[in-house]
Amino acid sequence: MSTHRAREILTAVGRVYPHAWRQVDRLRAGRGNLLPAWPDWCFMPLHGAYAIVSGGGEREVPFERAHHPAIVGALAAWRVTQGIYRFDPALYADLIETRLDADLPRDPLYRLPEWCVYVETPDQVWPVAGEKRPIHGFWAHLDWDERGSDELRLVLDTAASPELALDPMYGCIPVPLILGEGSVASALERVVISGAAQARRRGMEPPAGLLDAQAIARALWPLISLLLYLCADDAELGTGSVRPANPAPKRTRDGLRLFPPDAPRRWDVGVRLGAALRLAYQAEQTKQAGETTGRSVRPHIRRAHWHTFLAGPRQRRIKWMPPIPVKLDGGDLPAVIRPVKSGPDANGAG
Q1: How far apart are CA 261 and CA 246, in angstroms?
Q2: What is the pLDDT averaged over residues 63-76?
Q3: Banded model confidence at residue 342, pLDDT cuts 50, 70, 90
Q4: Over pLDDT 70: what percentage of the chain?
Q5: Which of 43, 256, 286, 312 is the most buried (most CB within 10 A)?
Q6: Torsion sign over Cα 261, 137, 217, 316
């Protein structure tokens, strides 16, 4: 893959902030020294991206660029791996229809395959000012704040063109989710409450009805479902012989540095599982197994679902149960997604 829309956005944002990536290197070099020792699962706290966009010191980011730190922070984390995750169409179709109506599982999200991922999202849309804007894909990473809660940070690639990625009207859309107990809607509501408190501290009164958390949660669930699959220990990524991972820094005369790849890398997701799903659906449609009589079960496919459970004190785990063919030729489709390791201590490379 020589180029990709996500890479073009990275280049466009780099032109607006030409010194950003070198400043990111300096900030990461200060981790645990001049700066707090943030967890390994966080590439760089967004406070760092805010300092880059604002110019540092006591400067504040102007209102018209308030969304820039979130975009710059996501791209900084993605730049060092540039993984593009493309789901098999059959698996993709099932995942975006799989709802988790209870809580947003927190622990599995600490197991993202890379610091930041870009997930392609064919046919997904985002409601903006009465219209539905195509979501070409989204970046996802975790943010850490020593004075607050961990956050799942999404940046939706809704830009009209890569050059407009930072445009406040036609660019990318950051969506923060404050992790904790509860659903996606409750995570969004925590963002609203936090944002309103910050606005009041600056002497501004936030408008009533600022955010319809329920409506946005409905638009987010397909994206979260795709993301949760990537966080499973045995998620089917690539060929299986090589899996995505965070790179190790290289020693230079200026200290340890991370060097970005020359081009994005595509990770095919669920190729084997998608092929099995297609065979199962084809068998169901053509009734290859034939009809049964009496008390036997008619051939059908059991619907996919998320299964959450406790595994020890306060350890939450999640498993995606794929559609299971029942009484079809070839037997039941195996559920290959296993529970992920729980909790923020399950870290990747730093």
Answers
A1: 12
A2: 96
A3: very low
A4: 70
A5: 43
A6: negative
Torsion of CA 73, 78, 80, 81, to 10 degrees: 170
CA separation for the pair 20, 196 (Å, rounded): 29
- State the pLDDT at residue 348: 43
* Tokens matching residue 156: 């939706």
3-class secondary-structure state, position 237:
strand
Residue whose pair of structure tokens reads 């593009």 in the numeric block: 84
pLDDT of 192 > 80? The answer is no
Q: Rounded to whole angstroms, how far apart are CA atoms 130 and 331?
A: 47
Q: Output the six-digit token pair for 123.
A: 């046919």
| pLDDT the model gives residue 341 | 39
In this predicted structure, the answer to whether residue 164 has a pLDDT above a threshold of 80 is yes
According to the model, what pLDDT value does residue 328 have? 41
pLDDT reported for residue 146: 87
Q: Which amino acid would we find at residue 161?
A: S
- Count of residues making up the chain: 350
222 contacts: CB under 8 Å, gap ≥ 6? 95, 96, 97, 121, 124
The single-letter DSSP state of residue 340 is P
Instruction: Give, as one character, the DSSP assignment of residue 162.
Output: G
Q: Shortest CA distance to 91 belongs to which of 235, 248, 252, 233? A: 235
Q: Please report, to the nearest 10 degrees, the dihedral formed by the alpha carbons of residues 211, 215, 221, 223 taken in order.
A: -60
Q: Answer yes or no: are the C-beta atoms of 172 and 166 closer than 8 Å.
A: yes
